[in-house]
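User: For my dataset I need records formatted as: sequence, then structure tokens, nothing else. Please produce one.
Assistant:
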Amino acid sequence: MKKVLLIVSLFLPISLCFAQQNGVQFTVRWNITNNRYEVFAKPNFTSSTFTWGPSQVGLVLPALTPNQAVNVTSVNAGTWVDKSRVYAPLADVAHDFHGVVSDGDMTNLTSGVETLLFTFTLSDGQCRAGVRIFVNGSDPASSAAGMAGGDFKNTIFSGVEAYGSNYNNTGTQCNNCNITAPELIK
């Protein structure tokens, strides 16, 4: 019993710290050089031994995307798999929803620094503009029309919930061309 109390007393402050910080954010970008989407995590804390528990990143894709699983390549925080999908549900016919999950693993995280979690491509190898991360509390809930009970909320369970929010989540672009023409001198 004393061992259990000791373990709990050591774990509780760490859990409360993460609960208060609630600080890992997600984003997705198109990498034009490597012809793939990349999903990143950015924490507001540093941990050389952050233990990702069961986690999910919800992806929102345009409904014109082929109705197939995305091809995932795991990089950090365990093995990621496109586990659940709902295509153009009545609650949001313009989008498809994918739940990419991992059982987790130890990961080195540095405050304010992006960590690449996984990359993915679509079955047709094309880029579709507008791919983004699911917005918890705003995108359709599992009980919404056509969602078939699918829960696509983002989560990172590391003893407590460590997912915070998304950043730069306005939808991917398929090119990285941000060149503006200089103003002509009259």
